[in-house]
Amino acid sequence: MFSAVLLEKDGSGRTARLAELAEERLPEGDVTVDVEYSTLNYKDGLAITGSSPVVRNFPMVPGIDLAGVVTESTHADWKRGDRVVLNGWGAGETRWGGLARRARLEGDWLVPLPAVFTGRDAMAIGTAGYTASLCVDALLAHGTRPEQGEVLVTGATGGVGSIAIALLAEAGFEVAASTGKPAEEAYLRELGATTVLDRAELSEGGKPLQKERWAAVVDTAGSHTLANACARTRYGGAVAACGLAQGMDFPASVAPFILRGVSLLGIDSVMAPKARRLAAWERLSRDLDVRLLDTIAREIALGEVITAADRLMKGEVRGRIVVDVNR
Ligand SMILES: NC(=O)c1ccc[n+]([C@@H]2O[C@H](COP(=O)([O-])OP(=O)(O)OC[C@H]3O[C@@H](n4cnc5c(N)ncnc54)[C@H](OP(=O)(O)O)[C@@H]3O)[C@@H](O)[C@H]2O)c1
Prior knowledge:
Layout: E1 2-10, E2 13-21, E3 31-40, H1 42-49, E4 65-73, E5 83-87, E6 102-105, E7 111-112, H2 119-142, E8 151-153, H3 159-170, E9 175-179, H4 185-191, E10 195-198, E11 214-219, H5 223-231, E12 233-241, H6 255-259, E13 263-266, H7 274-287, H8 292-296, E14 297-301, H9 305-313, E15 320-324
Parallel strand pairs: 8-9, 8-11, 9-10, 11-12, 12-13, 14-15
Antiparallel strand pairs: 1-2, 3-4, 3-6, 3-15, 4-5, 5-7
Helix pairs in contact: 1-9, 2-3, 2-7
Bound molecules: NADP nicotinamide-adenine-dinucleotide phosphate.
């Protein structure tokens, strides 16, 4: 038997509970993992609270991320005792995920735990931090350089935002952090933000072209925030769009793209090819100061996940939540 968060749905509705599950209920897969840590990402919050139809089939063990140790493998790349990380690939959406003490997965989905991190560190980073790293990789590949000016990060106190700030600051950028939590200014400056702005400055409808301000943007909000970010990006700049914390809509015009040559870079972490994942984890292991993870992340037990998901959806959480699935 193993403990897991279990989401079920029947004629009378949808439930989320901590359950004891028989080993035989694990899905098919070529690698079995003893999970050490998982996390709560925004998408896990959506899945657990049912705020959005993230879960495609029931019953489901949520958790898009895990770090753990291989116990059985018929996959050529992995053997018993290997320390691995999983981000995405439909875990917690179409396949049982990481908010459990045991998981069975496809070996092709796994990456090795970087040597500089513990499993807990890797989950303090999680999909949020790995996505932040994908965003920074995309902006640098576009040609964004520190001397071109400030980079805006929206949803700054969130998981993606927090780690994006730290990675950009480490890469030498001046970082403007947009937040709805002005009381967290000291936290954002500790991560490396040089300017902190109220997200209300970006969240209402605005003109298609506005005064040029940022060389580049990491946007986690979507909706008007993304539209305004594009409208204020400097000539030739780039906007890495990865989130929808404000909304999935994009009430914008093409003006920034066709008159200022601004590029909109779409970032997906779930199905990203392995080479891109490895590069993103390589940046994290090289550039992220692990000491910041104590400031960014807070640990909870598996039994606390369901209530924490509610708080996450209310936007009350700062930084990241790590889940020790064994307590
Ligand atoms: N594309 C991908 O593969 C991928 C991967 C990971 C995450 N994401 C998406 O990226 C977004 C952020 O993820 P996360 O893990 O960082 O989530 P998170 O930790 O919950 O952070 C989201 C942050 O967004 C800000 N926010 C909340 N409501 C908002 C609103 N109405 N308007 C503007 N900002 C708002 C808040 O920060 P402030 O209070 O500081 O403003 C909040 O802390 C989510 O939409 C998530 O689904 C996408």
